[in-house]
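Entry 12.
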Amino acid sequence: MNMTIASGKGGAGKTTFSVNLAYALGDRGDAVRLLDCDVEEPNDHLFVQPQFTEKESVEVVKPAWDETLCIGCGECAKACHFNAIAVVKDKVLIFNELCHSCGVCSYVCPTKALTEKPVEIGRIETAPENQPFFFGHGTLNIAEAMAPAVIRNLKKYIDPDSVNILDASPGTSCPVVETVSGSDVAVLVTEPTPFGLNDLKLAVGLTLKEKVPTGIVINRSDGADEIIEEYAERVGVPIVGRIPFRREYAKTYSSGQILTKEYPELKENLLGIFDNISRLPGTVPPEAEEEEIFTVKTGSPGALPAGNGTDYKEITVISGKGGSGKTTVVSSLAMLADNKVLADNDVDAADLH
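Predicted 3D structure (tokens):
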């Protein structure tokens, strides 16, 4: 069985559940594989403490530009659906962090000024001899964005004869979609708070659109879970278990210890939750709720009105999600502007440089 453990937000308890379920199943003799698919920030190994004995590189192809062959026609930029190429003043700007390695740019280039070159974007590390379960994780290199490619390589270690626990990254972005894809069941870990419910709705929408049977685990349950129960009943997604809110659990977890080793009652609880999860594969999940539809105006909006700045003007470029082309727009504006000062305020993942 392939089981993806996901959550709509970080800090809901996804890793805690994944690691301790792997130990609970492994200790009773089940064949288990724990694969940490949060390749941008894997942390299962902090608790498992594995001895990695096998490592492999993950490579993709990315475009390389030969200025001597380029005629500045712009066909590459027109063909790229991911805003990874811009042509400004006959110069081709390539944003590798946005590139999806599809190869269309080199295919449409009439002069073959763009060629594909292999680039390492991450690595896979596995510990086949780890006890009581096989462990593996992927790591995406800094400044790379192709997390799904690393996840696909990690998923090659899925064993059809084992219980495969895939610990997904938080949220509902492309890496989570890649992890959930092909799973027999998705388990969404949440907490009984308004913020937990908001992010749970996003995660449920994702898994139901992927047609994956889905169950909910309420972490930090204090007996007042109505906010999650009412939503779960409305959308037809079962609550497969609850993990009680206990201070000693948090204290043990924060010290890096395995909860099932210290609290036998929690181990039995997790095994009971697993029994409930095991009934979901093969069932037909409910339809996803309809989303709010936004009307987008078409056509050119015309030029924006000029500001009243005399010494300088500021342009702030923002987007609601990654990969929409913000970096491409900023870099192109910088190439066109005179007396420019460029500030990259994406301090978590600065990539304009």
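Annotation: The first helix runs from residue 14 to 27. The mean pLDDT is 91.
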